[in-house]
Specification:
This protein has helices at residues 16-39, 49-61, 65-80, 89-105, 119-143, 151-183, and strands at residues 112-113, 116-117. By secondary structure, it is mainly α. Strands 1-2 form a two-stranded antiparallel sheet. It is globular, with a radius of gyration of 18 Å. It starts with 15 loop residues before the first helix and ends in a 5-residue tail after the last helix.
């Protein structure tokens, strides 16, 4: 009789459950972005909840680098179909944001506030800043080619970027523990 051998085959990419989670989170981010932009139509701060959702997806599934970049690329492409979008700027900015999110996830974080980790807040905040400033740079390159941007415009964008980073960080920090429990991730 031949002896049976159990071999564990390592996954070659994202599983269906993870792909569905990414899709649902990005769709929720798009709906939130459209809805919030409708509510605050006259204000300069237009939060991009798609950033919060791809940060949350990267936190939850811990993708490989190429997978994180694809999540960012898909997020940027999704932004192209939403109202009030600057063509192509989000594609670059969301890939950069996802790369920063992935990179920060590789760093050890032991900082806690009580029993809660502050990692979701910090990495989302920094990733949103990276995405926002990349978007601002792309806006300058794509729309303002050679024109001077005055200090007031830079300050206005800085306030918007930091405001969005703060809102996204709070959203991810609040949603992360619940989604972590639902997805069964014990070691996040």
């Amino acid at each position: 009789m031949e002896k049976r051998e159990v071999r564990k085959v390592e996954s070659q990419g994202l599983q269906v459950k993870e792909l569905l989670l990414i899709g649902v989170l990005l769709a929720a981010g798009a709906v939130l972005k459209i809805f919030s932009n409708t509510i605050i139509a006259g204000l300069p701060l237009k939060p991009n909840f798609i950033i919060a959702m791809y940060c949350l997806a990267i936190l939850l599934i811990k993708p490989k680098l190429i997978e994180a970049l694809v999540i960012g690329l898909l997020s940027g492409i999704m932004c192209q179909f939403l109202p009030g979008n600057t063509p192509y700027a989000n594609i670059v900015s969301e890939v950069v944001g996802a790369f920063i999110m992935f990179s920060l996830m590789q760093m050890p974080f032991g900082l806690k506030l009580g029993k809660a980790s502050v990692k979701p807040f910090i990495v989302t905040f920094l990733s949103t800043l990276a995405s926002g400033y990349t978007f601002f740079l792309m806006l300058k390159i794509l729309l303002l080619m050679g024109m001077d941007i005055n200090t007031k415009a830079i300050m206005a964008f800085t306030i918007i970027i930091f405001g969005t980073a703060f809102v996204n960080s709070i959203l991810v920090t609040v949603l992360y523990p619940a989604l972590k429990a639902v997805t069964g991730d014990k070691n996040a």
